[in-house]
Amino acid sequence: MKAKDILVKPIVTVSSQTPLTEVAQKMLEHRVGSVVVVDEKGRLAGIITQGDFCRHPGRMVPFSLFESPNVLSNWLYPDQVEKVYKAARNLRAQDIMHSPVVTVSPEASLERVLALMLKHDINRIPVVRRGRVVGIISRFDLLKVMQQGYGA
Amino acid sequence: MKAKDILVKPIVTVSSQTPLTEVAQKMLEHRVGSVVVVDEKGRLAGIITQGDFCRHPGRMVPFSLFESPNVLSNWLYPDQVEKVYKAARNLRAQDIMHSPVVTVSPEASLERVLALMLKHDINRIPVVRRGRVVGIISRFDLLKVMQQGYGA
């Protein structure tokens, strides 16, 4: 089996200019832990996981803010809450995304996908053909292949 | 192969009375996404993942607070920061833990471990013998088994 046989699509993408508020909304709406960032030509530019929302000094808007809006009103005055949301609207996908991204081609073997996932300790690998993302493979998807191998 | 053949130990545990500040410190120190909660008799009481820090209304202290302490000083006045830390010291593991926990016995087949992980969409399953946790199995551990199957 190859990457193209198990990849999942459609993938959830954002543009490099998408505000963090929308990035978070997309993740919550599609119940995914990461989104793929593409440039204006549709080419892979980066990837964003929930943890990336808090990775960069000076550009930190915790993902939990979007997941549990109450968390802020627990601790902040209304004017502060508005400040945080404003920052989240002004920050763009490109400000917090990971890049470069570990990718595989559609023809990559599952052994290779698995080896890359374990080596880099990542949960998802975009499948890319000529710079364009054609799907994504997660740990979950590989475990499902493993389950089929057991004849379950 | 059985659960006992691939379980990982020692596991990172906290008591049900451990303050959230310490729970978070343990996760960061051991670089794990979850800790197992045991009661005073050493029996499995629950499990805590990073997401659980923000799951319960009125008991929300975002995990990112511990991961990136600066995130708060970006947005809060010093007296507010102190209030959040105080809450984190007063909240206990038992206040945010998941319970009951999906577990397997050491004799469980890997097929069963895998099926439970996929069914419940969870990343880790504690292995329990007579109420006591003897190890834990993660998606990563199962993927390593899969890799061995490929002869890598």
Could you explain how this protein is built, in words?
2 copies of one chain form a homodimer. Chain A is elongated and about 55 Å long. Helix content of chain A is 42%, strand content 18%. The two termini of chain A are 18 Å apart. Chain A is built from 8 helices and 5 strands; from the N terminus they run αβαββαααααββα. With 152 residues, chain A is of the alpha+beta class. Chains A and B meet through helix 3, helix 4, helix 5, helix 7 and helix 8 of A and helix 3, helix 4, helix 5, helix 7 and helix 8 of B.
Itemize the secondary structure elements and their pairings.
The structure is a homodimer of 152-residue chains.
Chain A: H1 3-6, E1 13-15, H2 20-30, E2 34-38, E3 44-49, H3 64-67, H4 70-75, H5 78-90, H6 93-96, H7 110-120, E4 124-129, E5 132-138, H8 139-149
Parallel strand pairs in A: 1-2
Antiparallel strand pairs in A: 2-3, 4-5
